[in-house]
Amino acid sequence: MTFRALWIISHDKGRNATTRFSRRFSTVEHRAKRMAGSSYVAVPEDSVVLQLLLIELGLSDPDKPYVALRDDCLNRPRPPFLELRVDASGKELLWPVLALLQGPLILACLPLVDVPPEPRPPLATLLSVSQGLTFLAGLQTFLLGSGSKPDGEGLASRLGMLPSVLLQVCPLGTPLDVPLPGPPATPTAPASGGIQKQPAWKTGLHRGRATVSVALLETVRSMQYGNRSRQDLWDVYGRVTCKCEVEGVLPNVTVTLSLPPNGSPLQDILVHPCVTSLDSSVLTASSVENCDSSAFSGPYKFPFSPPIEPFRLCCYTSQVPVPPILGLYQLKEEENQLHVTATLKLHESVKNSFDYCEAHLPFFNRNLMGGVDVKVSSGQLDVSKEKNRLVWTLGQKFPKSRECTLEGRISFTGQTSGPSDPLCANLTAYIKLYFKVPDMTLSGCCVDQHSVQVYSSAKPRIVTTRELQSKEYFIWNSTGSAPVSSAPMMM
């Protein structure tokens, strides 16, 4: 795996963005030009890359409420995997650009992809993607030290050291501390001195009580329209995070993910480079292709030698048949009032126990709310302090019927204008759901505590958790228009 270019950018919430460091590798660029042929796209100047990254990450022009290239629903930012439109027509693209955001820092790189640009291969099949993210994560640790926020003087000092550091760890654009592709090395006997060499990517050794923590978090997104002419969209993204406090230079740990008998196979799986071996059929299952019954459906075993710090073991997508909460939202304009009705129904497969569950109903391009005569069948309804949004708190449980309703009228009075949004004019409006469900996943994926194997001298304490949360979960007014999204909803 090699890099065509590397950038480190600092910014203040999108303002005062500056390229603090950049490096291009001419030998790698020559290879990229030779492989791409007529489809070759040159890397533009740093100032151009800076603006393109800010646009793709949604950080450009923070003072403007709407910027087409940033806010249009067809151009959704998808960090850490981006594509940069070099020309105005959008035909010249740099892909895949990898970007990590940490506070006011953006770390980005453009790896060399040794495959034809068309048809574009799934990201899960590109080893350079996972290795590039690992390199950026290591670079982030080097720049920030042990803290999560950059120290001004410390950051400047490390940036000054970076050219010489890159000569050692990334000569000619090829990182030396990223595992090379191929089967895992056969274990060998320790050296005569009995000392096991510590790998360069492991910054220290754990001393003390052995503990292995495995957390599985699934995030669901949804766009529901309540209209037979419009197809509802939803997707599920999962990630497994581990923290392994185990003694030894290279301890061996195996985490197993299991699915229920009727569960859909996991897809688009990306793994941390510390994973030592994996069945190739696990990595090739992609949501872009039609999933058939012959796809590998687990159990998914991930043997690895963990770093000392917390890390993301793997991430995946899953095709579930229905979203967890189905909704219907209707607005009707009657004189100077809005007639509002909404229904939320919890699917029978979802555990009826929430850490929290709220529905927000914002009203754009109108005056502030005056009279609010709205009733709910369950939960509590409040008007926001700014008088431009209804907050429906459903609490920790749906009723036994698993269905809640809201109905009433809202009048808008006074001369003070509420929030504006160019996408939500007239009857174009939505409900946005926020919820978290502990001890469940929508795909049924789980990590059995007894399936975590640790090969160490001390018996570790095993802790496993799982939970489901929402992100960008919208229910659009069925009596109005709604934004059209032709792009796949990927995390």
Kindly describe this structure.
It is a single chain. Helix content is 14%, strand content 38%. A 9-stranded mixed β-sheet has the order 9-11-7-6-22-19-14-17-16. With 491 residues, the protein is mainly beta. It has 3 domains: 171 residues, Beta-Lactamase (2-Layer Sandwich); 140 residues, Mu homology domain, subdomain B (Immunoglobulin-like, Sandwich); 114 residues, Immunoglobulin-like, CATH 2.60.40. It is globular, with a radius of gyration of 25 Å. Strand 3 and strand 4 form a beta hairpin. The protein contains 6 helices and 22 strands. The C terminus is likely disordered. Its main location: cytoplasm. Belongs to the adaptor complexes medium subunit family. Probably part of the adaptor protein complex 5 (AP-5) a tetramer composed of AP5B1, AP5M1, AP5S1 and AP5Z1. It is a peripheral membrane protein. It holds the Pfam family Adap_comp_sub.
Task: Tell me the major beta sheet.
Answer: 9 strands, mixed
Helix content: 10-25%
Overall SS class: mainly beta
Could you name the CATH class of the largest domain? Alpha Beta
Strand order of the largest sheet: 9-11-7-6-22-19-14-17-16
Helix-strand blueprint:
Layout: E1 3-12, E2 15-24, H1 26-36, H2 46-56, H3 68-71, E3 81-85, E4 93-102, E5 105-111, H4 127-144, H5 152-169, E6 211-224, E7 233-245, E8 252-258, E9 267-271, H6 280-284, E10 300-304, E11 311-318, E12 325-334, E13 337-346, E14 356-362, E15 367-376, E16 380-383, E17 389-393, E18 403-417, E19 430-438, E20 446-447, E21 453-455, E22 461-476
Parallel strand pairs: 6-22
Antiparallel strand pairs: 1-2, 1-5, 3-4, 4-5, 6-7, 7-11, 8-10, 8-20, 8-21, 9-11, 12-13, 13-18, 14-17, 14-19, 15-18, 16-17, 19-22
Keywords: Cytoplasm, Endosome, Lysosome, Membrane, Protein transport, Transport
Domain MHD: 209-476
Subunit structure: Probably part of the adaptor protein complex 5 (AP-5) a tetramer composed of AP5B1, AP5M1, AP5S1 and AP5Z1.
